[in-house]
Specification:
Elements lengths: L1 H13 L18 H19 L3 H12 L5 H19 L10 E11 L6 E10 L4 E9 L5 E9 L3 H5 L2 H10 L1
Helix pairs in contact: 3-4
Length: 175
Amino acid sequence: MKRASLAAFIALLLAGLPVRAGVSSIDSKQASGEAVAQARKMVTSLFTNLKEGKTEDIAKWIVAEIEYAQDAATKVKNTGEFKSKLDIISLSPPEGTYGKLDGFDEIDEAYLPGSSRYFRLTFLSYHEGAPLTWEFRFYVKPDGKVALHYISWSEKNPFEYLSSGDMLVTHWLRN
């Protein structure tokens, strides 16, 4: 009996019947065009500063945005850590892997299902040595101001990065 139940379940899955029951009832909300434009402006500013070697300015901005509630000593420590990581990105080959920024493209835009106030922009930056994938998550505050909530960059192959579960889930839920 258990085998028959398992076989029936697998057959339903393979037949393409909806497995994500209830998900389609989530409103497909998106952040306003103005909020996304604000976020893109922030990202463009980050890449402009990176191209100009202003890693300390970037690090201070990241810490101010993400860690607004931290004490001063923690902010100084984390600013130094972000600056060091950004300086490593800027090292030209053969000393570093990436080097001078040559340009960037937005490669993905996604929204948290059911929310018009949290979204993600993913970019690919092009450097003299290799590309980097950047993920930015933004929060639209009650006053309408857009704030950076999370940032990361990955040396993973962009195709591998975009095929990870957390990158695919928002696309899967939309369709």
